[in-house]
Structures are given as C-alpha cells and as structure tokens.
Design a protein that fits this description.
single chain, OB fold (Dihydrolipoamide Acetyltransferase, E2P), BirA Bifunctional Protein, domain 2, 9-stranded mixed sheet, 14 helices, about 25% strand
Length: about 500
Amino acid sequence: MNEQYSIRLEKLNNIKKKFYDPYQKEFHKTHDIKELLEKDPDDYKQEEVYSIAGRIRSKRMMGKAGFFTLEDQTGKIQFYVSKNDLEKDFDIIKDLDIGDIVGIQGFLFLTKVGEKTLHTKQLVLLAKCLRPLPVVKEADGILYDAFADKEQRYRMRYVDLIVNPDVKKTFLIRSKIISFIRNYLTNLGFLEVETPMMQVIPGGANAKPFITHHNALGIDLYLRVAPELYLKRLLVGGFHKVFELNRNFRNEGISYKHNPEFTMLEVYEAYGNMNTMMTLCENLITSLTKEILGSFTFTYEEQQIDLTPPWKKLKYLDAIKQYTGVDIQKDSDIKEIIEIAKKNGFAKHLFKQATTIWEVAEILFEEGVEKNLIQPVFIYEYPKEISPLAKSNKENPDFVDRFEPYIAGREIGNAFSELNDPFDQKERFLEQVKKREAGNEEAQFMDYDYIRALEFGMPPAGGLGLGIDRIVMLLTNHHSIRDTILFPLLRPEKIEDI
C-alpha cells in the first residue's frame, strides 16, 4: 500500500509540474451516465455532445489511444481517448489511475463489439485518487471482494460504497423507505415536527442515556432516548396528528440488533388508541413493502416471510405459555415459576436479577418467545408494570393496551393507547424512580413538567414507534444493523500521519 501510494503521489507531482490543477473546483455536467445508456444508438450524432463525470474504474491504454470505464451513482459507461482528440490534455492520461475522478465531454458511438461508448473530446482531472481501491473481481455473477474485512468496511464506508454495489443499493433503498414513510403519513394528514435531541430529563423509554454538558448554562444534559414526551406535549398544545423521524441515543451494548445511535419513527394521533395504531402499523408496513419489493412475500435469511394482511394477534402471556410452556398469572409465585422455567430448559442465571413475576415474564419472552415469531404478529396486552406510559386496560387494569409488532423473530416497534391521566402517570413515574434508586439505570426519571402538561388536558390518543433500521434490515435482507447504518459506531482506530 505504501509503495502504491508513493507511486500515485509521484504521478500527482508530475501533473502539477505541467501547471495542471489536479483538484478542480467545478465541472458542469449535462447528463448522468444512466441517461446516456438509455439513448437509442440509432439516434447517435457526432454533433450531439454530452458532459459526464465520475470515477475511473478501469483503464486500457494502447499507445496513443485507450479505453476507460467511468462510473457515477447511476451506472458505468466506457469512454475512448486518443491523442488526436485531446491534444495537450493527453499529457496527463498516462498519470491517471483507477479511482481518479474525471469530467469528460464527447459524443456517443458503438464500438465494433456493440458497446456504448463516449468518444472523448475533452477530459478534466477533478480529483486524484492517491490510495488504490480494493480489487473486486466478478465470476459467474458473484463478486469476489478483496475489501472483505467487516470492521474496515464500516470504518471506511466511503470505500465500501465505491467497490461494493450491493452496499450502495442498500442505502438507496433506505432513502426510499424513509421518503415513502414521510409521504405516507403526510398524505394521511400527519404533521412532521422536530423535538429536542438534548434534554434536561430523558424520557419516553426505559434506557440508559448519554450525558453531555452545556457550558453556557452550566448544566448537564442528556441525549434523548425517545421523543415521546415532547410529541405528546404537542397533543396537549392542539396538534392532533404528529410524527417525527428521529435520531435516538441509548447507552447500551452493541450487537447485531443494537446501535447506540439509531433512527426511529414515532407517530401520535389524538382520539386514536391501540387499535387505530395497529391498523396504521399494518397498513404502513405492508404498503411500504409492496412499494419497495413489489410483493408482500419475500425471503429473509432463508425464511419465507408473508406480510399479507391481516396479521395474527397474540396476547403477551399466551405467547409465553405457547412457546415456553410456562403459564404465568399476575398472582403466580416467582420461585415456583422460575423452577418451572428451569425444568423447561431455561438457565438459572437468567433470572438472577429478577425481583418480580413480570421481570421473569420479560426474560422468558426475550429468551423463549421472540425467536419463534417469524411471520408478522401483534403481541398485545402487556403487564402494566413494564409499560409506564400506556393506558390501563378497562377490563383488566393490571395490563395495558399496548402491542409490539414482530417479524422474522425481531421486534420492529412499540405502540399503545397513551396514558393521559396525570395522577396515574405521576404514580407510574414514582415507581420508575424507585427502580432507579434501587440501581436500575434504565428506569425512567420523574418529569414534573410533563405531569403539568397532562394537567392542562391531553386528549385520548394512540402512539406508535417503529425502528427504521430494523425495517431496513428486513427489506434488504441484512442480519446486522450495522449494515443498514452508513457510519455505525466503532472503537477509534489509530491512523498514522501520512
């Protein structure tokens, strides 16, 4: 690498000695490469000149002429250069390398083998590539990538995007997914809003927050774990249908399912409830899937997924009983339930920190249920103790009107009928405070201003949160969340001065 870098640096100096600026400040493009590839060869005319720009991906010189391949975001095209056409600009051709960014101008023609090619009349070096690109070879439609180290690909995503077309495709799809969701909700009359990312009190989810400091105010602040409490303040203020595509930050472990910084969609509708959110969730996900994949059915990690509505519904405790064989009720004895769970194959250490029957239920659900929820299903009727922001069920007040959608064994969201009783909400917050004082760093804080907001009156409402990264994982068939985030968090590397 150092030797190749030195060679390219020498070429750069050769170019500069010719009084040529190898880092131009502008170039006027008239077309993308895709537009040229779509043109009918019968319409080619020498007097019709096109200007395109991109990165050189291959180079074949034959004396005073040669063929190159140019790539931009839309595609690749061959271009032809000769000394007769380029005159003084031809002096820099021998110093061009694969990876250099150039702008070219010329007319289209077909080679003897029928390949669409741009006959170059003018070439401008726009940026010299000093570091050689990894070599990617293709055989039988399969890419063999020399740049295969996962961590290096995440660190150097800019190179990953250049050499791996499937990676670029993933992030193009991600952009389409976000655009579709935004347009879908806007067309339903929802208002897109923005809420604070730095908060005095982090709320809206059970998660350990990141802490930062505001110098001018002299106070510590938290990066938000969720925008929920601010969005519901807007319901109080009279905005009845709001949503935010937001970045959240949770100081938790990193895994194939978790990144400390991630993207969420949160939607709130006054006069809605859990059932209206269930309908919205199902319609949004199925419409999105049909738009992106063209079908409700697709393959994810060798599993055939069918999102055709209506989706199955299953109660939380019924799911635990069905998949673990453990029948939990609100008055179940915690020791007896743990013993039954151990007999059914669950390791004793899993329950070491559990102090309530509902904490045992959470463990059983995560360890024994989630992996079985392959086809889309709404898990609903969660225990009140683990749902501090959801409205209690009228018939069974120990449970709340809450659901989580699961697809391919993963939770992709959370929704419920929003709690709008300030007295009930205050009691729930106090319970969370007790948990924090007992050492639970993920328990929520007391937020007196939010209680005050509820005291002004918040209409009954439904709320829905969806994990955008997990939806992208699903629709692009990626196992790891890092493959759907352009720049996932990594430990810093030591880069030597060049």
